[in-house]
Amino acid sequence: MLLSLPPMPYTPLSDLEVIQRVLAGEKQLFELLMRRYNQRLYRAGMAVLGEASATEEAMQISWVKAYEHLASFASRASFATWLTRILLNECLMGRRRQHRFVGLDDDGTGMPAGARAADVPTPVHLALNNELRIALEQAVQALPTNYRSVFILREVEGLSVAETAHTLGLSEANVKVRLLRAREQLRTQLEDFAPQHAFPYLGPRCDRMVRLVLARLQPVA
């Protein structure tokens, strides 16, 4: 059984160097690849499956397949691309297996499940929307008070320019200027927001995946 704890220290080895050394007999180095790419696989799997436990099962299977077929890896593509394709294929196969057992009227609506899929937000979309909402709220709170009050009345409460001006004792021209500047500041603050912050797969979760996969591996032929 290949099992290494605590986590391996950082190494500057490239993916190709790690693969070559694993194939040469240093099987424990496969853990380095898992720790590098668990995050990528989790996000890719969640994008397809939208459910954590199904994604983690697909990850385990994909890592085992990657290990078993490591000798067939062609360095024309990056290891990350090759690995992600294995994961996505496994996710799609998992979805097809699930669909075999889903009836056309599985929730009593009289409509095929697939016909409703586009109308229902996936867990991935809900999570990303929630993360964006939190980021926006924090950015609005960071605005100067004179900009924040205009932005909230106009963009959140939906007041007209005239109503906002009357409420705050400002001219309509002043409201327009402050709203423009608030939007510019928000745009600048939110430029750093990106989905790469979503679905972290670090620490204990990554450790657990490494243990589960290593326990399933057999020596490379």
From TrEMBL:
Question: What GO biological process term is on the record, naming one?
Answer: DNA-templated transcription initiation
Q: Does the keyword Transcription regulation apply?
A: yes
Residue span(s) of domain RNA polymerase sigma-70 region: 33-100
What is one Pfam family matched by this protein? Sigma70_r4_2
As one GO molecular function, the record gives: sigma factor activity
Q: Does the keyword Secreted apply?
A: no
Q: Identify the InterPro entries for this entry.
A: RNA_pol_sigma-70-like, RNA_pol_sigma-70_dom, RNA_pol_sigma70_r2, RNA_pol_sigma70_r4_t2, RNA_pol_sigma_r2, RNA_pol_sigma_r3/r4-like, WH-like_DNA-bd_sf
Which CDD domains does the protein's record reference? Sigma70_r4
Ordered alphabetically, the record's keywords are: Sigma factor, Transcription, Transcription regulation
Q: Which residues form the RNA polymerase sigma factor 70 region 4 type domain?
A: 135-186
Family to which the UniProt record says this protein belongs: Belongs to the sigma-70 factor family. ECF subfamily.
What name appears for this protein in its UniProt entry? RNA polymerase sigma factor
